[in-house]
């Protein structure tokens, strides 16, 4: 008991620490009084020590109930309740017990000493105050049982077993006291109730020393086991399933796996087969189950170094997120390499033309006719513009990724933005003789947008439509409004886009045709920029396409107010 008190003093982090300490002090006082009652020979001395034991008898279960209240329910005992339970009641029973000779309410006149050989004990004539005190103690102990029962019901699997032990320990004194009152059972010629309390407290002490009961570290280990998202299986040396944590049990239930049928678990069954046959797992191993990826780890269990193997604790660590991140990193590196190759190619092509044109002009200045010189300068100018657009696209992509990027939103007419974009594209690739058809919408369509950025999106789509359309064909532009949304559709008559190419169309540094034999060049950034700008506007951009027929891109943006004439 003293060891438990010393332990409790040093563990102030224990919930209800002071009440646990006071419980043990009360129990120690009760045991001391019992020891003195047994050791003294006369009836008067025995009765005196029995009376002096009452403050400890009242204090011990009261403090125990306070400890359970704070430990199991995580609530503080009220100040008024503390004063009544720890100060008033023990003091009242002390006064009543020490003045018993005057009123006889605790022990009556029929109290007598019985001598049996070398042993003597007192048979007490219990008065009404004794039964009132006992009823009070029963109420406290029953309240303690209710507290623990509530904790058992609300506890998660990690600590449910702990609270069941706590309930059992709390109920022990009730059983012993009832056996004394109803059947007259005595131990060493005395009421066994205090010894049962001592046994309970001793059992608590053993559990503490065993590091399994009120030790928060032990509870934390159980919490990690039961609440871990890792799948944990405990198997014996023959591969028989002994136990699982909640995550593993839930997986087996969801997949309809019978208990113990580890080999039936998709992807994971072979892990146990390898472990049983080889007694260890490969250092690098990954399994897939239900679209998620796991890395198995096996921890052998034995009684000590060199002892017989008892089994393994096998955990499956979910690495799906890490795998996705790794795949994204690999994909990002691939896209970056593709981007560098694309940019190098796109830079090299206009630079080669510019360099070639200027070299011809420089070296053959006297032999170059004015018409040839004009043609060479035209080629150099055109490729310089292409080079400038590539650089602008790179800078634009960088700006969009910056947190400082802001749209200059204002109320504007979508009709006017479309007309400006169409007018600007009239001289684009004149040699293809592509006509852009747009019938102005009859109503004014008001939107809240950054007019320059939205026009940039429309120009990007129009330029692609012209690039990929057949010569001497048409690009049709239409505007419609429905349910508070404006739709700008741009239809070309090109070769179309293969199905499933959305990521290529709107991706960074990607093109549907990235071969060296392609007929249309670009950085692969235009549509990516367009999609990001539309997302910033609260709109979207998508397409439908049919090979050999053409593609229709649709730009969607919310209208700001009702359409006006």
Would you mind describing this structure in some detail?
The chain has 18 helices and 14 strands. The chain is an alpha+beta fold and 565 residues long. A hairpin with a 4-residue loop joins strand 3 and strand 4. It is elongated, with a radius of gyration of 44 Å.
Helix content: 40-55%
Can you tell me the residue ranges where pLDDT is under 50 for at least 5 consecutive residues? Answer: 514-518
Radius of gyration: 44 Å
Number of strands: 14
The description of the largest β-sheet is:
5 strands, antiparallel
* Mean of residue pLDDT values: 83
* CA-based shape: elongated
Structural class: alpha+beta
Q: Distance N terminus to C terminus?
A: 93 Å
Number of helices: 18
Order of strands, main sheet, comes to 4-3-7-6-5
In terms of DSSP E residues, the strand content is: 15-25%
List the helices and strands and how they pair.
Elements: H1 2-9, H2 17-39, H3 43-52, H4 54-73, H5 79-98, H6 100-103, E1 112-116, E2 119-123, H7 128-154, H8 157-183, H9 193-209, H10 216-227, E3 231-236, E4 241-244, H11 246-254, H12 269-278, E5 287-289, E6 292-302, E7 309-318, H13 320-363, H14 370-401, E8 410-413, H15 414-424, E9 435-438, E10 446-449, H16 451-468, E11 474-482, E12 485-491, H17 502-506, H18 526-536, E13 540-546, E14 550-558
Parallel strand pairs: 9-11
Antiparallel strand pairs: 1-2, 3-4, 3-7, 5-6, 6-7, 8-10, 11-12, 12-14, 13-14
Helix pairs in contact: 1-2, 2-3, 2-4, 2-9, 4-5, 4-7, 7-8, 8-9, 13-14, 14-18, 15-16, 16-18
